[in-house]
Write a structure and sequence with these properties.
By secondary structure, this protein is an alpha+beta fold. The protein has three domains: about 260 residues, Heat Shock Protein 90, CATH 3.30.565; about 160 residues, no CATH class; about 130 residues, Immunoglobulin-like (Sandwich). The chain contains 16 helices and 26 strands. The strands form four sheets. Strands 1, 2, 3, 4, 5, 6, 7, 8, 9, 10, 11 and 12 form a twelve-stranded mixed β-sheet that branches. It has a six-stranded mixed β-sheet with strand order 13-14-15-18-16-17, with helices on both faces. Strand 16 and strand 17 form a beta hairpin.
């Protein structure tokens, strides 16, 4: 089924928010910033947590929205998630820099200037700063004691962990999105001054609490005093800055423009947003890209300026922007009811499912035929399948479940597959080699726990290296990242679950045969009888040779007879046990690994992620592959066929 996608124009709206009044920033002398001093011989550590989140395609804004929405879902109150979505309000505000500094940066500016001498970014010179306000509702807020020492014996540690402990997560829910305790620092990373102001309302005493934090550099002041990088804003005492509570916190709610009333949750004020381009539509597009699965499932809803975004209108909102048109087919797919999908479920344990592969062995012939018909008709297909997990310290194999939604899609420009883990979307990528759209998700405790353990800090990938020591055969379990391709092959008839034996039995060259001197005497010779004539084997020159490079390999072609050949070059990473096999997430020719062909040849074509065909090669042709992981073994095979000359 083909879908024609054209962005619908959005209604014009004044994107310049009102400027805050000067009265909002009347300074309270009791409030201020505090930093911990370092002893002359103390060891400091420069915060580099931003390196964990910022990648080639990342911006400070999309990283913040992804991490904070996941944090809000993790903090969903028990009577919210599953009944009503967590509601998040986002807006921008213009503030006068000079007035804000007088009200809120008094005492911090000398430390900012000291950090600027060390390379900390300088503040822009404009009169106004754009600030972002983020507030969640339907969450528990930051519960627990305000004093970090008291939180050690408390059931709830949210407040203390949020402000006083970076790099450690208190979340013990196996299905939670967070794992590493560093996502909260994406708020300061969005600010040019690396600072936030926060207010939380919770169902424990004190009910309303405010606090501020800035993450700077370790630095020296002009008098030679050394300071730690983290600064906290609150009520100034002899021991630092304590959290602000009661009426003073209520006044801060008004001064910062929060809408927080009597509802529990967390409000953040991010001063001077770094984003070069930020307005209502930019925020809406980022939320659709990173949260459409959770929005469609009813877990999240948003109020961004004057626009509401939830499961009922996300399809129409996504259709307004060119940047989110490719998500429209995915949204339609996720919103399809079970009654309107072709549902396929397997619990059958086969040799394939034990290896993490969804294959034809898992289904009957009639089920596969119905699957093929449904796919060709363009019907949404829902496949629920088992995934086996085995912890090294566990009692045995546990069975988890994943669920895939897939649908035929003819427009190659908008073919995309997305992999989510309940409250967080982890992988979103173009499909390679198949005309389909697909969404994988799991809320299953067993599988979600494993995938959470395999997840990198920025929630953008599942890594075998992170679970290698704690799970047995993690690569097999991580094959869930290829389930969309598996089902697509089944639906199109290309994957019948069978193995093609000896598909790669032709190697680089004919191996040298043993000489007659190494042939053992036959039984007849030993008995004094006439020996059978020996077959004279003459070693043949190598037609193709492979040599290793620091990040790949080179295939050199040297047929001595001047013949031409068609080559299929296939590569695999070596495994820890058994035969090498290709896994889709390891690498892909033309993407992660570059292929360069020089010398006499007719054509080059990438057949799959790990196979390239080079036609009509002759002596002097060189096939060079670069971009492999230099610390892993690469196994390379060449299948060749001589071209018949006409």
């Amino acid at each position: 089924m083909s879908e024609s996608l054209t962005a619908q124009p959005t209604a014009s709206v004044d994107m310049v928010p009102p400027t805050f009044s000067t009265q909002h920033f009347a300074q309270e002398s009791v409030f201020g910033w505090s930093l911990s001093q370092l002893s002359p011989f103390g060891t400091s550590q420069v915060p580099k947590l931003d390196k964990l989140f910022m990648h080639n395609t990342s911006t400070a804004l999309n990283v913040f929205l992804r991490e904070m929405t996941q944090n809000s879902l993790d903090a969903a109150s028990s009577n919210s998630l599953g009944k009503n979505s967590v509601r998040i309000r986002i807006k921008l505000a213009k503030v006068n820099r000079a007035e804000f500094k007088r009200a809120f940066l008094n005492g911090l500016e000398p430390h900012l200037e000291a950090c600027e001498r060390l390379g900390f970014p300088k503040e822009p010179v404009s009169d106004e700063a754009t600030c972002l306000i983020y507030e969640d509702y339907g969450t528990s807020g930051l519960r627990g004691p305000l004093n970090p020492a008291q939180s050690q014996t408390s059931e709830y540690k949210n407040f203390s962990k949020y402000f006083f402990e970076h790099g450690e997560s208190h979340k013990d829910d196996s299905t939670s999105g967070g794992r590493h305790g560093v996502g909260k620092i994406t708020g300061p990373l969005l600010s040019s001054r690396n600072m936030i102001m926060a207010v939380t309302r919770r169902d424990c005493s004190p009910n309303l609490v405010a606090y501020g934090q800035a993450i700077l550099f370790p630095h020296y002041m002009p008098d030679g005093t050394r300071y730690e990088p983290v600064a906290n804003y609150g009520v100034r005492t002899g021991e630092g800055s304590e959290p602000i509570v009661g009426r003073q916190a209520s006044r801060l709610v008004d001064r910062l423009g929060f809408d927080r009333s009597d509802k529990n949750g967390l409000s953040l004020f991010i001063y001077d947003v770094k984003a070069e381009e930020i307005d209502r539509d930019v925020i809406l597009r980022e939320l659709i890209k990173h949260c459409f699965v959770q929005i469609c499932e009813g877990q999240l809803s948003f109020d961004v300026f004057d626009r509401h975004l939830d499961k009922n209108n996300i399809l129409s909102v996504a259709s307004e922007f060119d940047e989110t048109l490719e998500y429209v087919p995915l949204i339609r797919l996720v919103q399809t009811s079970r009654e309107d999908t072709f549902n396929l479920k397997t619990d059958r344990l086969t040799s394939s499912t034990a290896r993490g592969v969804v294959s034809g062995e898992s289904f009957t012939e009639s089920e596969l035929e119905e699957l093929s018909v449904a796919f060709e008709e363009g019907r949404p297909i829902r496949v629920k399948f088992p995934v086996y997990v085995c912890r090294r310290d566990g009692d045995g194999i546990e069975k988890g479940y994943g669920e895939l939604l897939i649908r035929k899609h003819e427009d190659k420009n908008t073919c995309r597959e997305v992999y989510a883990r309940g409250r967080v979307t982890v992988i979103s990528q173009k499909t390679k080699g198949g005309n389909y759209v697909a969404v994988f998700n799991t809320h299953d405790k067993v599988l979600s726990t494993f995938l959470g353990d395999a997840e990198n800090v920025s929630h953008t990938a599942w890594r075998e290296s992170l679970v290698r020591d704690s799970y047995r055969n993690p690569l097999r379990t991580l094959r869930v990242k290829s389930v969309a391709a598996d089902v697509y092959l089944l639906a199109t008839g290309a994957g019948d679950g069978k193995t093609i034996k000896n598909a790669l039995k032709d190697f680089f060259y004919t191996p040298d045969a043993p000489t007659n001197s190494t042939v053992r005497p036959s039984r007849e010779e030993k008995a004094g009888e006439t020996a059978r004539p020996q077959l004279e084997l003459v070693p043949q020159p190598k037609k193709f040779a492979v040599s290793e490079t620091h990040d790949g390999f080179v295939v050199r072609c040297a047929p001595a007879d001047g013949s031409r050949h068609d080559l299929n070059v296939t590569a695999f990473y070596g495994g820890f046990a058994g035969k090498p096999k290709y896994e889709k997430w390891d690498f892909e020719f033309g993407e992660d690994v570059s292929i360069e062909v020089n010398g006499p040849h007719e054509s080059v074509a990438i057949l799959s992620g790990n196979e390239v065909a080079v036609r009509g090669v002759s002596a002097g042709c060189e096939i060079r592959a670069t971009g492999f992981d230099g610390i892993r073994d690469v196994h390379v095979y060449v299948k060749h066929k001589q071209v018949e000359e006409v």
